[in-house]
Amino acid sequence: MASPVTFTLALLCAFLALTSGTVINKSVKRVIDLSKSVARHTVTLELDCGGEDGFYFGIARVNASAIARVSAQRTGSSKQVEVRKSPKPPGILPPKEGAEFWRVQFKKEQTEVSITLKIVEVKAINSFPKAIQKQDEPFLVEYYGNQHFYSPYETKELTTTVKLPSHSKVEDYSHKKSGKLDGNELTYGPFTNIEPFSHKKFRVHFSTGATFQKATRAHRILQLSHWGGTLAVEEEYDFVNSATTFKGIYSRLDFEQRRPTTAITAISALIPKAAVDIYYRDTIGNISTSTVRVHSKSKLEVEMKPRYPLMGGWKANFYWGYNVPLSAVCKQLEGSDSWELTIPRAQNIRDIWVEQLEVDVRLPDGASIVSVSLGNKAIEDYELSYEAANLYLGGRPTVSTNSVNIVTPDADEELKIVYNLGTSNMVLQPLYLGAIFMSVFLFSLFYVRLK
Q1: Which of 45, 91, 120, 135 gives the lowest tally of CB atoms within 10 Å of its CB?
Q2: What pLDDT is recorded for position 228?
Q3: Does residue 153 register a pLDDT over 70?
């Protein structure tokens, strides 16, 4: 029987082997972009995989921040690499609470590889102070992060660069010995020979001119009409300006003389160039302060102005919509009665963080669902209901999906729905109308004859 000392040494060796693994981070270059309302990380990794078919990496969350999106691709290429969330690296108990882990998976074993990770972090840039009394006070925010790359592997060399907004005034930043401020860039490192799970917290306090657009809830409704050949899109928002809360006395005169950087006076959205019948309303009624202009060869820009400027902490509820030709987003699969609808999952408003997004796609009466997918992944937990409508006996089949922490333009996945719809189903509406008119005519004829 092995002695307690031998058993303890065996456990220690096993833990060290699992912690370091065969993967080594040869070079890590991190760029944290804080120029907008969310933090965007770009991490370029040079790895020695030692014949492994993937690797793990982690993010040690600070101050209840949340990860909205993680993607991976070969450095210098647009080709995406599979990345999925993992509870933790097998057999490893990470020393940092609140950490989240992902695994980048290759199709075959690798030796040396270069990967670029893109991470979107919300709830990370926070107002400090939390409230202001004057409209013209500067908009100050703070960010807490990790100087190192949170990884279960040893890192040979690492540099972290924090990009701040242009013309930003840095009030303060921590670890001045390891950090260097040059213009609007704060650089930590280079560091060498970093242990696994290394976490060295830093803080930066700075001014920003970014708008902090947030929706606590957004509801997209897309309704198809094969008979009319249109797709009707409507979006409803519970909108809030999540900048520093304004608790002073609002003066329109002071606002016009010197507009505060925290105020939101217009909301911009991009829609297809073929869009028509654009509208913008709230609970009171139609809002006429909106402008439509050409943005590019394929897009229109809709600028919607609220009824009043939205100061920090102020809220608004509104909805808007438009119609596009169905042929632009839906096609019939060759040699079958199946149709494929391809639409963006996310909303159209630019640079907005949506805490909860609901998407309802209302298909024609008689349609049957074949598959629902987001990007290249099938969705199995969608909700299927039937929406009552005029001239529909069974109701419109409605596919509903829910998402959290959606940030545009990063959430660019496409929602694809394949459904069956026979030609006979498309002529049911005109047949119903014809039957109704014929019944009215016959009833009128019979009634006149009786008199």
Answers
A1: 91
A2: 84
A3: yes
The DSSP call for residue 150 is -
With a threshold of 0.90, does the pTM exceed it? no
Nearest in space to 221 (alpha carbons), one of 415, 408, 398, 356: 398
Contacting residues for 184 by C-beta, under 8 A, at least 6 apart:
163, 164, 165, 166, 167, 168
Q: What is the pLDDT of residue 9?
A: 42
Per-residue pLDDT tens over the stretch 166-199: 888 999 999 888 899 998 999 998 999 999 888 8
Residue with tokens 């909106």: 290
At 281 the pLDDT is: 92
SS3 label, residue 418 = strand
d(CA 156, CA 190): 10
**Under a CB-based contact definition with an 8 Å cutoff, are residues 151 and 57 in contact?**
yes
Helices (H), 21-73: none
pLDDT-derived band of residue 6, with 50, 70 and 90 as boundaries?
very low
Q: What is the pLDDT of residue 157?
A: 96
Closest listed residue to residue 264, CA positions, set 294, 244, 247, 282: 244
Looking at residue 51, its amino acid is G
| Dihedral of the alpha carbons of 42, 47, 53, 57, in degrees to the nearest 10 | -50
Structure tokens at 313: 């902490």
Whether 171 and 205 have beta carbons less than 8 Å apart is answered as: yes
List the beta bridge partners of residue 206. Answer: 141, 170
Residue 106 CB-density burial (10 A; 0-12 exposed, 13-18 middle, 19+ buried): middle
In terms of average pLDDT, the best of 91-100, 397-406, 428-437 is: 397-406
Three-state DSSP class for residue 180: strand
Report pLDDT for 13: 45
In the three-class reduction of DSSP (H, G, I as helix; E, B as strand; rest coil), residue 29 is classed as: strand
How far, in Å, CA of 69 to CA of 76, rounded? 20
Q: Do 49 and 111 touch, CB atoms closer than 8 A?
A: yes
Report phi then psi at 136, rounded to 5. Answer: -95, 15
Q: 52: burial class by Cβ within 10 Å (0-12, 13-18, 19+)?
A: middle
